[in-house]
Amino acid sequence: MKRYGNLWPQIIDFENLLLAARKAERGKRFRPNVLAFNDNRERELLNLHQALKRQTYQPGKYQVFQVYSPKPRLISAAPYRDRVVHHALCNVIQPIFERTFIFDSYANRLGFGTHRALRRFTRFARTSRYVLQCDVRKYFPSIDLSILKAMIRRKIKCRDTLWLIDTIIDGSNPQELAIEYFPGDTLLTPLERRRGLPIGNLTSQFFANIYLNGFDHFVKESLKAPKYLRYVDDFALFSDDDDYLAAARIAIEDYLATLRLKIHPIKSQLFETRHGANFVGFRVLPDRIRVRNDNLRRARHRFKRLQVAYAHDKVSFDRLTCSLQSWAAHLKHGNTGTLREAIFSELRFSKLPQC
């Protein structure tokens, strides 16, 4: 396996840092921390370049908050300066790993995403009798940092680049507690091993793909599953042979144990595709694709918040229009013509009269 060196000059190059800053500010240009950074961007980037070059750079403190939709999660937002570093690193190392990913891994990859994954899932479901659909239990909090570092070192040998990667990984804040025991563990093993990547980091999303990349190849090449796809920690295998899928589940659990991961005991099921399957916010049935009720309920709540924000002049007309168009485009990936007409016909946006 080829290992890559001499990556550091590309990462800390001023032009790469400038590109990273432009990527990091997308959709966030008018936030106070971004405005403060951009007020003296050249100086900020030069200081960042020097800190990286001298290896005095250290990540800042995360801003942590809890979200409850679609499920309870701890979100960690890195300081903007650190997000620029994350983009600078990924600009250089992501293409190295990208060529090792299987075709049917869809999360956090340019040109892939949820809608392309949905089309592939639908095609597999409608040409197969059975599906084994699994979800990794507490995926991001369970990622073992020593195992992750070893995986990265199989492709990268540049010491300076590895220093930055380790600095980012080691700078991760404590995540949700996810104590699991595996063969050979002592009572203290889960407490002795550092686990967890912060949800919200660009690097975390990228490292999460690396962590399950070997598993993807195991399913495709060792289990010889022609119909398999993964979106983050949600993956599915399709077949007309339910005995094959039942045996595959056992092999999958054994392999994931080597990564100190377990599949969710309730969300992971083997069933007939004719009953329909939930995937990336939709329900895929043999003759149609519906929006999941919980996804629709969250959208209605979001529209109500937008109505209030627009009425109080806290959101611009352009941003409002962009949000509505985005949701309409999302719905078009299902059989939702009547639903779209019903939703948008009842929406009313108006500003409160000025005093």
For the CA atoms, what is the radius of gyration?
22 Å
Order of helices and strands: HHHHEEHHEHHHHHHEEHEEEEHHH
Low-pLDDT runs: none
What would the average pLDDT be, to the nearest integer? 91
Q: Could you tell me how far the N terminus lies from the C terminus, measured between alpha carbons in angstroms?
A: 70 Å
- In terms of quaternary structure, what is this? single chain
Strand fraction equals 5-15%
- Characterize the main sheet: 4 strands, antiparallel
Q: How would you describe the shape?
A: globular
Find the structural class using helix and strand composition: alpha+beta
| Number of helical segments with 4 or more residues | 16
Count of extended strands = 9
The main sheet orders its strands as 4-5-3-6
* Residues in helix, %: 40-55%
Descriptive report:
- The chain is of the alpha+beta class and 355 residues long.
- 50% of the residues lie in helices and 11% in strands.
- It is built from 16 helices and nine strands.
- It has helices at residues 8-12, 14-24, 32-38, 41-53, 80-98, 114-125, 139-142, 145-153, 159-170, 189-192, 202-211, 213-222, 242-258, 293-311, 317-331, 337-346; strands at residues 63-67, 73-77, 130-135, 228-231, 234-239, 269-272, 277-279, 282-284, 289-291.
- The strands form three sheets. A four-stranded antiparallel β-sheet has the order 4-5-3-6, sandwiched between helices.
- Strand 7 (277-279) and strand 8 form a beta hairpin.
- Helix 2 (14-24) crosses helix 4, helix 2 packs across helix 5 and helix 5 (80-98) runs parallel beside helix 11 (202-211).
- The longest helix has 19 residues, at 80-98.
- The protein is globular.
- The model has no long low-confidence stretch (mean pLDDT 91).
